[in-house]
Amino acid sequence: FPQREPRAGWRLRASPGWRPARCRPPRAAALLDLSFLTLAERRAIAEVLRRDAQLRRRDEGRVRRLRKSVSDPARLKSLTGDWFCDVRARRHQQPLGSELVRASIRRRRPRGTQGTGTGTAGGGCGAGSAQGPLSASPPACLPDQPCDVSPPAAALEVTPLSQSLREPDIPPGQQDIPLQPGNSGQGGGQCHGAPGTPRARQTSPSRVSPQDVPGSQLSASSSVSSLSSSTVRDTGDGMGRAAARGGPDAVLPPPQLSSSLVSLYSEGELGRVAVRGGVQVALRYEPAAKELHVHVLRLPRWHRWHPRAAAALGAPRLPLHPLLSSVGLQTDLQGRTLNLSVWHHDSLGRNLFLGEVEIALGAWDWANTRPEWFDLQPRTPVSPGDLASHGHLNLALKFIPAGSEGAGLPPTGELHIWVKDARSLAPLRRGTVDAFVQCYVLPDDSKASRQKTRVVKRSLNPLFNHTMVYDGFQAKDLAEACAEVTLWHREAFAKRPLGGIRLSLGTGEGSGTRGLFIPLSVLARGRPLRGHRDIPSVGTACGRVLGAAKR
Amino acid sequence: MRWRSPRRCPRTGTGSGPCRRSMASATDSRYGQKESSDQNFDYMFKILIIGNSSVGKTSFLFRYADDSFTPAFVSTVGIDFKVKTIYRNDKRIKLQIWDTAGQERYRTITTAYYRGAMGFILMYDITNEESFNAVQDWSTQIKTYSWDNAQVLLVGNKCDMEDERVVSSEKGRQLAEHLGFEFFEASAKDNINVKQTFERLVDIICEKMSESLDAADPAVTGAKQGPQLTDQQAPPHQDCAC
């Protein structure tokens, strides 16, 4: 496709979400009470914080280059400033000033309409699902972009599993990405912490909440067990807090937010871990509320692994598509399959598949609400043929370096994103879709970076034929840029997500920015875009699926 | 699938928003066009200036970073910082100098910055006894919130206002000695000892850096690349020249 490849040898791949392990402030700091600040003061301080963040981002770039070029460890330590991190760490386990203040200022900000987040920034990773993100951003929204519409009954969203990593109000440094950017396989090395107390587990049921609109479909379910995570430093502490925070409601998304799970592979890792053990699950269906509650009670204690569970409602006998989530649930649970998968969430934010259980809900005895053990099964890779019925987004990207067209044109590098069309979209409700595509080039998540296509009404195969042009790029900027393309259904007063992808060179650099390249732990990483076979040169384009690509 | 003209918007029908939207401004701020030049330094040191309200912390910083002075008093909101790159001991050192609000009201914010600071300038006003009496408390704050080896310079500012002096140089020096700090009298207004203060602090931080590297790995002593400051002279004339 692109007449000019950006540069030979460039590869698009998913971005690991960790920052260089430098002065990373540990978690577990009490936030400051900054409620006394006036709005003007807050603004002034926010501006200072912004400048500081910018400075630090640049310094991180310098440090990255140093790490590549300087081999003498002592010299590296002094040049990078690590010497100070070391001596400081002997005394303090708290975040640096700006990060703490930033988190604290954000903390006081009024939150979204979906309830209030509780908990502190210092909550454990697992407990993270109890924190703000669930409420701060409607799950349907990509948390690292402004979400101006909050769909009251979002059909597709991220799962709480990933939300703990996506706390938008916690500065990046505080995200629980551990220091060791080690091999993923070793991620579990830190996990002697027991995966939580039973009580903590039981406070983390998940539920499938169909929309309360009669006749509407539940799209998918989600389930998360906030069992321990390898990334929590003080596992015990974190879990203790999770338990203390108490009732399921603190952990759950508000009921009107159905948590649909996008199922996921961490493809490269698939099969790396022998599947064994089982998972204890209790199912309960509440007809009145049209809710399916999936309580993940217990996961076996894997040596070295930190299990997490995720569930999705699949179409009958259809393997769950990694890209996608939601299957229109036209009838009820009859004929549906609950897919519950267990993952190890490693230190790099990657997921290692530990096994899965498929429960045919049609045959389920709903009188049985007791916990049952299920043996975990290996997963058979999904063949592309299975995905034929899923929606496709047809797009192409190219980068035009400055001056490459002669006569000094274009004056700056341009990134073109051609959104051609989408095909075979499945409607959120009966009927059709009024679809549009919007695009950001992250890390700029401001509205200035947002571009949209028009809305194509009542079509499951909308033709957009729209090219988004972003200029002002240098080739090196691309390393830190990430094109986020999302597909939405336009309603009268809201928009609802149909799916999306992120494409980046995937260096993970620039992740000092809030939310940027945070590993979406439940999402496929570094894999070609399935169902996007029309994309030319797809071999070079891999991406992570963001929300859900509609089948 | 074939690209259409790269220069024109091939969008058909009506759309929302302009087809082309410049990323230039965002690019500037995000990616920092000046990055390469900005990053042309060896070390980055973080310094914090603390002390009572209105002792002249902000003026001191402005004098050093911008070589400017304005007599008007504008209270700092919480925190602020300035950046200055200097050449010292054959190294380019970028200083991020944090200026804190002296007012009690912002104390929660300012103390959060102590732990990230490699060195401190603790300032009082030689015409303000109260600010001098508070030095002990500030020193305690540093010990509480900072790292173990925090380096502090005690600075008596406004030494141009000899007529209104209420804290003698001797008192200042004694207190500094008692607290284990080095001492300067300075004037942001008349640009006395401002540069010297910062440079001395930078030198001390360099020393501490070398020490910490030596302590961390004695084996590298021979190959150590950090600045060698052993032949550093004693601080020059530290008192106010006036």
From TrEMBL, chain A:
What Gene3D superfamilies does this protein map onto? 6.10.250.3000, C2 domain
Keyword Disulfide bond appears in the UniProt entry: no
The residue ranges flagged as biased composition, category Gly residues, are 114-129
Q: Does the keyword Membrane apply?
A: yes
Quote the biased-composition stretches of kind Low complexity, using this chain's numbering.
216-230, 240-250
Q: CDD domains given for it?
A: C2B_SLP_1-2-3-4
Its Gene Ontology biological processes? exocytosis; intracellular protein transport
Kindly state which keywords UniProt assigns to this record, in alphabetical order. Membrane, Repeat
Localisation per UniProt entry: Membrane
CC per GO annotation: exocytic vesicle; plasma membrane
Q: Its Gene Ontology molecular function terms?
A: neurexin family protein binding; small GTPase binding
Polar residues bias: where? 200-209
> Which residue intervals define the domain RabBD in the entry?
31-87
Q: Which PANTHER family match?
A: BITESIZE, ISOFORM I, SYNAPTOTAGMIN-LIKE PROTEIN 1
Instruction: Output this protein's name.
Output: Synaptotagmin like 1
UniProtKB/TrEMBL annotation, chain B:
* Basic residues bias spans: 1-10
- The signal peptide, as residue positions, is none
InterPro entries xref list: P-loop_NTPase, Rab3, Small_GTP-bd, Small_GTPase, Small_GTPase_Rab
GO BP annotations listed: intracellular protein transport
Localization: Cell membrane
Source domain of life: Eukaryota
A single GO CC term for this protein reads: plasma membrane
GO molecular function list: G protein activity; GTP binding
Instruction: List every stretch annotated Disordered.
Output: 1-35, 219-242
Family per record: Belongs to the small GTPase superfamily. Rab family.
What's its job? The small GTPases Rab are key regulators of intracellular membrane trafficking, from the formation of transport vesicles to their fusion with membranes. Rabs cycle between an inactive GDP-bound form and an active GTP-bound form that is able to recruit to membranes different sets of downstream effectors directly responsible for vesicle formation, movement, tethering and fusion.
Q: What is this protein called?
A: Ras-related protein Rab-3
